[in-house]
Amino acid sequence: MQKSPRIAVIGAGLGGAAATSLLDKAGFNVRVYEQAPGFARLGAGIHVGPNVMKVMERIGIADALNSTGCHPDYWYSRDWKTGEVIAQIPLGDYALSHYGSSYLTVHRGDFHELLVKAIPSDRLAFNKKLSKIDDRGDVVMLHFTDGSTEEADIVIGADGINSKVRDTLLGEALPKYTGYVGHRAVFPISSVRDFQHDMCTKWWSDDRHMMVYFVTGKKDEIYYVTGVPEETWDMSKSWVPSSKDEMRAAFDGWHQGVQSLIDATQEVTKWPLLERDPLPLWSRGRLVMLGDACHPMKPHMAQGAAMAIEDAAMLVRCFSEAGLDDHAAAFALYEANRAERAGRVQLVSHNNTWLRTNENPDWCFGYDVFNVPLVSPAASV
Ligand SMILES: Cc1cc2nc3c(=O)[nH]c(=O)nc-3n(C[C@H](O)[C@H](O)[C@H](O)COP(=O)(O)OP(=O)(O)OC[C@H]3O[C@@H](n4cnc5c(N)ncnc54)[C@H](O)[C@@H]3O)c2cc1C
């Protein structure tokens, strides 16, 4: 009897956890290796659009997510100084009826916890930091920093922006600093004085912005993330502490809605916004990548995790469609059906134009990874 191919997923972040669940549900022999010692409620806010909720429905955590997150009625874009509404994009009930799935904002940690819990425990290994990959042609040897090794037939690199799998395929190279930082803070709404916030607002000026939304269904925790130009970044640091004074200087003269949040800030951190140019390949031999490992982007469409999760679902769909006897064909089908969309989202995110005006977001939110017609690799060139 033939053994089913052993699939190793590297990284149990949002993309890797989704891939592992979906592979397990589809009957594949999968195991995910995560460097962290266990689950931790990391990160802050994240948008989960209908395009992602389609995947969460398949994984079986859509109801739990719906009761955890906040369901904004609209995405408001507002002028930095006057507060005037410059765009108003319907979400809420409209998203449910128009796209068939909801739109919500949630704490990334709460979302991640639901995804990790959906993975059967025997499929998940924590404390496994991949240090070296040896693709021998007929099998891949995975080496971990604890000295252990594992064999796999297929390796999925879901190991984020500094991916070891990407380094193996393309050589070590730091991501590019975009010249922008993001300040991030989450705190109780009860500490915000003198302003009634919408459920989801992006405040815009010509060179910077602040995105604001609730991260719980109870609307008791509010989150902001900015995009602010800053010439240089020390790439040895993944983030640094910021302060109310720095925020006041960066948003001097901005509307009271923004000032009310800065005044209420308890702790604020500053992150570099990083990206990579589109990669020349997404797979080689027995290795394939998804998410930030192959297309990290500025967060300005709030779709980075969404692209990782859509990638995961499409990869599993292509494994089922093409079979794993010829994994190169499955990988090619996957790339053919993901590269254009991920590249488009990467570009719009880079340009930071998303929903600044009353544009139609259907191409993004209306995407259904399980039902979109597949294009063949030859047709996509
Ligand atoms: C400020 C900011 C705001 C954002 N807001 C949003 C948003 O609203 N919506 C959205 O969709 N996206 C958002 N994003 C983007 C999103 O966070 C990422 O795009 C997303 O997390 C990528 O998922 P991933 O699974 O590819 O990688 P990650 O989530 O980074 O996961 C990678 C995993 O691999 C593990 N790993 C790494 N190296 C190894 C190794 N050698 N061995 C084993 N394990 C390893 C890591 O520990 C981690 O668990 C935002 C990003 C930023 C910076």
From TrEMBL:
Cofactor(s) it depends on: FAD
Gene3D superfamilies associated with the record: FAD/NAD(P)-binding domain
One Pfam family from the record: FAD_binding_3
Keyword line: FAD, Flavoprotein, Monooxygenase, Oxidoreductase
Matches recorded under SUPFAM superfamilies: FAD-linked reductases, C-terminal domain, FAD/NAD(P)-binding domain
Domain annotation FAD-binding: ranges: 7-344
Identification of the protein by name: 6-hydroxynicotinate 3-monooxygenase
Upper taxonomic lineage: Bacteria, Pseudomonadati, Pseudomonadota, Betaproteobacteria, Burkholderiales
